[in-house]
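Long-time lurker, first post. I've been practising inverse folding by hand and with some scripts of my own, and I keep getting stuck on stretches where the structure tokens seem ambiguous. Below is the full token string for one chain I'm working on. Before anyone asks, I'm not after the true native sequence, just a reasonable design that respects the backbone. If someone could post their per-position residues I'd love to compare against what I wrote down in my notebook.
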């Protein structure tokens, strides 16, 4: 997951390969609650791990359910099975509608004393229709802030009050279907003696989500009947029965970003279509019907149980005019696809967008306009006119409003024909439903290497370049290459593979170097699964490194390996010849220096902290001698690239040096 302040997406060209999607949020949280209300243990497979499921799991724990996260996407939930939940309890539910609404109903029907709250936006998301329905029944619920909104207090300290179950429970369905879902999931708790009837007042929006609710209730032994989605009957004698094991299918709304990417950029030049795994045409999720919308726009889609394959069909895409009430979440993706269409696309019947993670109609309109599109909006519709020419596209910094879907769907603007990058602010917000969204995108998106930014930080020994480069990489969410460590790592790998570092083994050593599984992560260096940070810093490793680097075929292989670090979304490379030899066309090159006195002092501190004794004056003499040797040697002498910016950090803290490099980088961005 990217937790950077922003994430810059380079212009993308194609999409290919396959992507395995994480579990459905809607299914995960329903299954967790149903398991919590059942007797015995339910083993949930492929559960979504995200902010929304985290708050649900934490709430269930606080309520006294057994929650065992077994790893590998498996959670074992031991339900209450008729026991009263732990009370009093304060539950923090973030911004998860699928936790707040159903838990409100369930706890109101279980008895006890609870406070349910969330992030500030959750306190602006309506829940009044559900609270009204529960109050009708006799439940005591107070809104602690504004009437009709969380935070809520359920006050059944003295036990459940007598409930009025003989009359139908009326609930409005035109603001959110989650109110009806909440009642459907919870009312079987009190349907022992008689049928419980729910009547929907007014139109029911987002109806396919009720289908998911009914499907999952059925798997937990509760067969709800309904008349045309207006009147629902929970039969007397209903009892939650755990299926023992249950599998969560992948999220169909999350699939929409990849279906769109496929429709725009997959299957070109004879390549295979993009494969999407975990959700297929047999899905119980309504958002699978996004496939039909994408097809209407020209996408070629094939699919079966648990998989989809998508490629570009019509290009430009075809504009559509669509009632999107049945796919409220995935429809946001259509608004960005509209940028690539042949006319004005209008999305209708989407009033609920205004009360979700943010006012999504306003947010989409504002951000699409930043890209250059002409957008009109109404109370419950949005229309987007594409950009007439590639030159009309603008590079934009997309504000994401703490809305995962805004972040995810605007990543698709990086496929723009103008070759412009797109900045996504606060990329961490995707954690609500798809924490590794950008990693998944980068795994299937392709672009020519020269479009992937590289920042080179070269400099003499002990100038602090490794530390600065690693932190710049971290701030930008870029990959990091410590090229100096490459030779040491190659030598270590050779030793471990039992290959002597001798000219006669040069081809084998080069082969090994070419496929060296080295990674730089969290300030450590990894060789496959081994942390080799310290192992490559020994005297012996240094000597072996110098022997291995004398072999031309190994050097060549390592150049290829270093070039291979230029991966989406970008790279920060430190060393001695990054800007001069390896990435001569890098868009930012920094030559980082510090006075010999300062460098000697830093090295001294480093050694002392490792328990190695040394004197500053000896270290300084060594450094100066090495500088002179490095600068004067004929083969790639250490020197700044002509277009490098010089940064003397003798008097700077690490943070200041990092801030300077990031400031130079920012100054070169079009945002
Ligand atoms: O029941 C559900 O799982 C959901 C219902 C929909 O909300 P509304 O019914 O409020 O439209 C949807 O937007 C949300 O992401 C999940
Ligand atoms: C509306 C959404 O979330 P929630 O489940 O919080 O309503 C969403 O995921 O787009």
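-- Answer (accepted) --
I ran through it position by position. Result:
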């Amino acid at each position: 997951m990217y937790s950077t302040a922003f994430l810059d997406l380079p212009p993308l060209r194609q999409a290919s390969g396959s992507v395995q999607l994480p579990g459905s949020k809607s299914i995960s949280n329903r299954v967790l609650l149903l398991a919590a209300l059942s007797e015995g243990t339910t083993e949930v497979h492929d559960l979504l791990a995200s902010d929304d499921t985290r708050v649900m799991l934490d709430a269930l724990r606080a309520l006294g359910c057994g929650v065992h996260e077994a790893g590998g996407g498996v959670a074992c939930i031991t339900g209450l099975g008729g026991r009263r939940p732990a009370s009093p309890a304060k539950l923090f539910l973030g911004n998860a509608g699928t936790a707040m609404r159903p838990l409100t109903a369930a706890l109101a029907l279980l008895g006890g004393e609870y406070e349910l709250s969330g992030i500030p936006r959750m306190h602006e998301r309506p829940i009044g229709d559900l609270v009204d329905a529960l109050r009708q029944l006799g439940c005591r619920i107070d809104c602690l802030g504004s009437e009709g909104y969380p935070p809520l207090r359920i006050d059944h300290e003295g036990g459940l009050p007598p409930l009025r179950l003989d009359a139908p429970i009326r609930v409005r369905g035109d603001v959110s279907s989650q109110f009806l879902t909440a009642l459907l999931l919870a009312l079987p708790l009190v349907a022992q003696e008689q049928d419980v009837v729910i009547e929907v007042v007014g139109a029911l929006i987002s109806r396919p989500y009720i289908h998911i609710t009914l499907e999952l209730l059925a798997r937990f032994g509760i067969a709800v009947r309904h008349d045309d989605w207006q009147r629902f009957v929970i039969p007397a004698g209903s009892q939650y029965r755990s299926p023992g094991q249950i599998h969560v299918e992948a999220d169909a709304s999350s699939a929409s970003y990849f279906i769109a990417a496929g429709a725009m950029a997959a299957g070109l030049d004879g390549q295979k279509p993009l494969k999407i795994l975990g959700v297929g045409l047999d899905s119980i999720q309504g958002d699978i019907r996004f496939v039909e919308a994408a097809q209407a726009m020209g996408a070629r889609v094939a699919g079966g149980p648990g998989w989809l394959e998508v490629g570009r069909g019509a290009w430009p895409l075809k504009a559509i005019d669509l009632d999107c009430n049945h796919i409220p979440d995935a429809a946001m993706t259509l608004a960005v696809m509209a940028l690539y269409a042949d006319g004005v696309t209008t999305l209708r019947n989407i009033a609920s967008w205004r009360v979700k993670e943010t006012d999504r109609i306003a947010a989409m309109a504002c951000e699409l306009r930043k890209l250059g599109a002409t957008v009109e909006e109404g109370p419950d519709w949005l229309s987007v006119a594409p950009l007439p020419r590639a030159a009309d596209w603008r590079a934009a910094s997309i504000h994401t409003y703490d809305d995962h879907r805004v972040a995810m769907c605007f990543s698709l603007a990086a496929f723009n024909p103008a070759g412009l990058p797109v900045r996504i602010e606060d990329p961490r917000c995707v954690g609500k439903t798809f924490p590794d969204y950008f990693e998944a995108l980068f795994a299937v998106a392709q672009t020519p290497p020269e479009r992937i930014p590289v920042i080179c930080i070269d400099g003499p020994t002990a100038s602090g370049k490794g530390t600065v480069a690693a932190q710049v990489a971290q701030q930008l969410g870029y990959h990091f290459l410590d090229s100096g460590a490459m030779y040491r790592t190659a030598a270590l790998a050779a030793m471990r593979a039992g290959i002597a570092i001798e000219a006669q083994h040069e081809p084998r050593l080069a082969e090994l170097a070419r496929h060296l599984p080295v990674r730089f992560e969290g300030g450590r260096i990894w060789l496959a699964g081994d942390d080799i940070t310290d192992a490559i810093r020994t005297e012996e490793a240094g000597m072996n490194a110098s022997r291995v680097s004398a072999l031309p075929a190994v050097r060549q292989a390592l150049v290829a390996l270093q070039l291979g670090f230029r991966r989406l979304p970008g790279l920060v490379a430190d060393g001695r010849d990054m800007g001069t030899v390896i990435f001569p066309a890098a868009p930012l090159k920094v030559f980082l220096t510090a006075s010999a006195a300062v460098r000697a002092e830093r090295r001294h501190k480093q050694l002392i902290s490792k328990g190695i004794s040394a004197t500053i004056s000896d270290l300084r003499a060594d450094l100066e001698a090495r500088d002179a040797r490095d600068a004067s040697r004929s083969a790639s002498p250490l020197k700044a690239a002509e277009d490098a910016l010089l940064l003397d950090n003798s008097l700077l803290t690490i943070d200041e040096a990092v801030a300077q490099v990031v400031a130079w980088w920012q100054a070169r961005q079009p945002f």
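A couple of notes from the structure itself: The mean pLDDT is 96. The longest strand covers residues 66-71. Happy to go over any region you disagree with.
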